[in-house]
Every structure is written in structure tokens, then in C-alpha cells.
Amino acid sequence: MNALYAEGMTLPQIALLALAVGLAIGVGLSLLVAWAYRARARVADESSLVVPDGVTAVLGSMDDAACVVDSSGLVLAASRAASRFGIEVGAPLENPELRQLVRGGRAEGGSASESLRLTRGGLSLDPRLVSARASVISPRMTLLIIRDVTEQERLDQMRRDFVANTSHELKTPVGAVTLLAEAIESAADDPAQVRHFASRISAEASRLGQLTGRIMSLSRLQAEDALSDVRPVAIDEVLATAFEAHVVQADSAGVEIARGGDRGAWVRGDSQILIEAFGNLIANAVAYSPKGSRVGIGVKVVDDVVEIAVSDQGIGIAESDRERIFERFYRADEARSRRTGGTGLGLAIVKHATQRHGGEVRLWSRPGRGSTFTIRLPRIDAPPRIDTDKKNKKRERKAAKAAARVRNGEHE
């Protein structure tokens, strides 16, 4: 104090200086305390294994498999879908590939991702393709997200196969037409050979037209707005039209088509698509049936479902082929299908048409005994003041007359 007086400072000046020094010391102590609290909180966070509430809420709303694991691989929290891959809260992360991914994410200090093949629930026969990503959310916790992309991969593969198969199937009749055209040119002086090659070209052109038409039908069925003309549809009328379209084929093959079961059933849908679907089943049944056999078309109404079964007494379908019989371009009997002009798209159209109408298609078959394809569709009540019995009977009489003309040799 005396020294300050000696320097000529007055008492008020000394008081202000003391106040400034005290304020500086107080601010410094406050900052030191705040830093200490922050450091303590940071250390607590780094050592804590409590999953933040926000992360838990996100996990609870996720459709993908996801979990939070600690540095030792223990699962601290998980979404409901995580159990499909055997991930349970309180248990260690068992899968070695996922553990390695978590370690990789922690080593990089941010995140790591990888595509893996995992099994669900420990079933080695059910591998799934997943896109997994590990992201560090704290020094001791890592968020692991597992997205199942198996179906996306399957759809991509189906698109690639469809393009490849379509190109292959189109190349065959186009190549045949080219060769036959060259043969006609070389046999220009032989009318008989020209007529023969011309008939072959016509057959290949018909096959090409059938193939492209079915590809377009299948593409329309797979579009979002496939059913453009939805209205009440009489099953009797649909079957009568489909039967009429294939009666010549049946009589030429020596196969009888018989219609039985319930009458007056109605569904809601697109009549043209249903006619094509049932027509494909009838055409297949006739093509794979021996001469002198019978193809049966039966209708049964069970509660709110209409069951339409098309049965044959043909060669049947092997059990190994039943899983794939509805795939595009798949043929259980390649040689016979080629001989009968099959495209391998008929049953794929049947499947997609049925699904578009909210139904399902079932298959029963025994090799050497025949096959039965059953389409199940939701039934609706018949619309008022609509009676199609006369129309259907007229169609059936017309089909019977056409069959009689074929038997008498009157059809060209």
C-alpha cells in the first residue's frame, strides 16, 4: 500500500486496481471450474455404456436390422428386425464378419461399409445379401445398420435374365426367317419349294408375333396400371370365350375339353386379361395331353372365393420343376415346348394376371398322371339386371359347331 502511495496512486485508484485483479481471478476460477466440469462430463461420456435416448428412439422406429455395440462387441440396443440375424440385446455380436466391420469402423474413426452374405436366425440354408454399415457414435459405442438387399438383387437378376432370354428367343425366329428367305431366293425356279419355304416363313412369323405379343402382355401386367378396364366379370363368359378360342387346337390334337362345376360366379377385374390367362392354361393342357384324353375345366364357389381349375391327363410336371414353372421363359419340357410352339411365357402371364386380380394360382401334378392348375379369385355378387346365361350358351354351341366342323374335315 505504501509502495502504491509512493508511486503517487490515490486511494480510489488503488481500489479500482484491486477490483480488476479480483475480477480477473474470479473469471479465471470460473473458467477453470467450467473446464473441469466439461472434462469430467467428457470422460463420463467416453466411459459410459448408456445408449442415448435419441438413438434408442431411432432404433425402435427402424425397419432395417440395426444395433448399438460397445468396444467389446456386446449388443447394448437393437431394433426389432435385428433378431432375424440372431442379434439380441445383452448378447455378444456373434457374426465374425460383422465384428470385423465394427472394428474397421472404429479403426477409421468414422464409418465403414461392406456387402456381406449373412444367414438369418442361424439357418445356413437361408443366406441373405446385406449392405452393412458401422458408424462410431461415441468412443465406446458403434451403430451397426444391416439392410437386406436380397430381393433387390433378385429383381435386378430377373431383369438381366429377362433381357438376355428375350434377345435369345427373338433371335431364333428372326434367324429362321432370314435363312428361309435365302432358301426361297435360291429355289426361285421351283414353285413347290417356294411354297414350302413360304409356309415355313409364315409359321416362324406367327411364332415371332406370338412371342412379342406375350412379352407385351407380361410387361403390361407388371406395370403399375396393369388393370385399365376393371369391372364386374362373369366367369362363365370368360371361360366360354377362352374355350372357343382353343377348340380348334383341341380337336386337332384329339383332346376333349369338358366344362363343369358352379355357374353364375362373378369377379372384379379386366376380362381380356382373365381370358388370356385361362386361355394359356387351356392351351398348355391341350398341348401336353395325349390324343384321346380329356381336359377338364371346373368352377367351384367357396365362401368369398371362386376356384377355377384346369386339369389334364398329360405328362405331368416333375417335382424339381414345380418351383420354377411360373418363371419367364422356363420350360419343363424344352423339346416338346419347341415342337408345340411354346414361348415359355404363358404360365408367367397366368401368375401375374392372377396376382393383379388379388388371387393366387396353385399347382397339383404327378408325372404320368397329369396336372391341375387352380386359380383362386375373390368373388363378388352378381350385378343387378345382368343375365349372361344365354350369351354363354350361345358361345358354347358355337364352339361345339366349330369342333364338329374340324372332326368332319371342314376346317382348313
Summarize the structure.
It contains twelve helices and twelve strands. With 412 residues, the protein is α+β, with helices and mostly antiparallel strands.
Can you describe this structure?
This protein is about 50% helix and about 20% strand. By secondary structure, it is an alpha+beta fold. Strands 6, 7, 8, 9, 10, 11 and 12 form a seven-stranded mixed beta sheet that branches. The chain has a five-stranded antiparallel beta sheet with strand order 2-1-5-4-3. A hairpin with a 4-residue loop joins β1 and β2. α5 (about 150-185) packs antiparallel against α6 (about 190-220), α7 runs parallel beside α12 and α8 runs antiparallel to α11. The N and C termini lie far apart (about 135 Å). Mean pLDDT is about 75; it is low at about 335-340 and about 405-410.
Q: What is the CATH-assigned architecture of the largest domain?
A: 2-Layer Sandwich
What is the assigned CATH homologous superfamily of the largest domain?
Answer: Histidine kinase-like ATPase, C-terminal domain
What CATH calls the topology of the largest domain is Heat Shock Protein 90
Structural shape: elongated
Number of strand segments: 12
In whole angstroms, how far apart are the ends? 134 Å
**The level-1 CATH class of the largest domain:** Alpha Beta
Please state the CA-atom Rg, rounded to the nearest Å.
38 Å
Q: Report the sheet-strand fraction.
A: 15-25%
Order of helices and strands: HHHEEHEEEHHEHEEHEEHHHEEH
Major β-sheet annotation: 7 strands, mixed
Whole-number mean pLDDT: 77
